Amino acid sequence: MAREKSHSGICYLAGAGPGDPGLVTIRAKEVIEQADVILYDSLVNPEILKWARADAEVVFAGKSAGDHKVPQDHINALLVDKARAGKIVVRLKGGDPFLFGRGGEEAEVLAKAGLHFEVIPGVTSAIAVPAYAGIPLTHRDHSSQVTIFTGHEYPAKIETALDYKQLASLPGTKVMLMGFQRIGEIAQKLIDEGAAPTTPIAMIRWGTMGRQQTITGELHNIAGIAELADFGKPALSVIGDVVKLRGTLNWFETRPLFGKRIVVTRSREQASGLVAALRNLGANVSELPTIRIEPPADLRAFGQMVQDAHTYDWIVFTSVNGVNKFFDLFYKLYDDARDIGGVRIAAIGSATAQRLDDFHFKVDLQPEKAVASEVARMFEKDSSIENLKLLYVRGELASDIIPTRLKEMGAIVDDAIAYRTVPETADTSGAMARFRAEGADLITFTSSSTAENFVALGLPLPAELKIASIGPVTSATLRKLALDVDVEASKHDVDGLVAAIRKFYAL
Description:
The chain has a five-stranded parallel sheet with strand order 3-2-6-1-7, sandwiched between helices. A five-stranded mixed sheet has the order 8-9-12-10-11, sandwiched between helices. The protein has a five-stranded parallel sheet with strand order 14-13-20-21-22, with helices on both faces. Mean pLDDT is 90; it is low at 1-6. 42% of the residues are buried. Helix 11 runs parallel beside helix 12 and helix 16 packs parallel to helix 17 (472-480). It is an alpha/beta fold and 507 residues long. It is elongated. The protein folds into four domains: 9-123, Tetrapyrrole methylase, N-terminal domain (Cobalt-precorrin-4 Transmethylase, domain 1, 3-Layer(aba) Sandwich), CATH 3.40.1010; 127-249, Methyltransferase, Cobalt-precorrin-4 Transmethylase, Domain 2; 261-290 and 424-506, Rossmann fold; 294-423, Rossmann fold (3-Layer(aba) Sandwich), CATH 3.40.50. Helices cover 34% and strands 22% of the residues.
């Protein structure tokens, strides 16, 4: 008789996709954001964990061939215990949870315990990774059938469950997940059972990510090619004539920043635009935030200024963070955007202007550069600001050069401290550990505070590391910190920084 379901909690068995965070499903992202507890595997890109709540319990439950850091029985017990305690539990598994991922076994355990669970399919590496290597699994001229098998079976098995004779005789494309260490043995078994020794084969490691590596050969020589290339796991293999199409369809590995290891030090709230732009160019991006955005020390004073915003002639926004914090509070105080009154709006920086547009506020004045002389020139060009009231929305550590210049022009300027930046010490994604172990090709700094807090971390700098700065103010801070600036954006925003990095690597 089936046991009655418990209503105390739920476990989501979620596929985390093949590695590229952009391939995670919307549903998986939703449950990660809601989770009380997250158990993730070694093949899950740790960058995905940035979506977790700050108070979520995050548990590494990684396993790999011959290295079971957390026994499966312990994982099963954790899933049951946490869900039974009323928690929202997310079991994050690389690729798809039901394709060679033991998700079926974990679902059985939850069902037997009478607990609610939901399966969230993921984009499997078996399909996504070959696509990122320019290899279509089916093609009307080459293959109308796909076979997926594992090269790593349960170690306790006395005999293999794989029928190599059948595998060798099957037409179409074959995709082997795992089994890198046994590629020579497996290739030879396929040849012994009738597969042509010259059958094309590709091996792809770290698929869909900026560190992706692909080698090609034939069944008879692929093991030697892999050894010469110092090829390693995690990897999958594609066997069949479709491999020949890679020469024409290799779209991912030809991107301008492909393979470049780039570190982004912006706060998590701000990093997404820069990270996405660099990844779209093929870079292997690691988020290592050195600052965290927090409310201002005197939130009541800021709230009073927001409440009185309609009494000002101008509001000057200096950053995206300032816009976010202002309107977060504004819409808690007012229900109607028109309550802001007839105030005019100035934005320093294109990203700031874009964020204002997101709130459906048009910008009346936007200096081309975020320097005092340019801001003053734009105001003078527009009209006199003598005796006008300006609300200057900024961060706690922002320079006072611009508001001082506006006061010199006769304006009455009130400083509205909307937020403060504090050093980020949490390392949920393990980015600091990876930087220590692997280094990087280039690191980006988008403000003086990101530079100062990075140096305070005391991380070792590889000799070949290049440094990119968003503009002259940040560059000056970097030089004071005894760091050489290799790349400086001529346009002082994210788009300008990305363009400067692309140009640097094109030389």
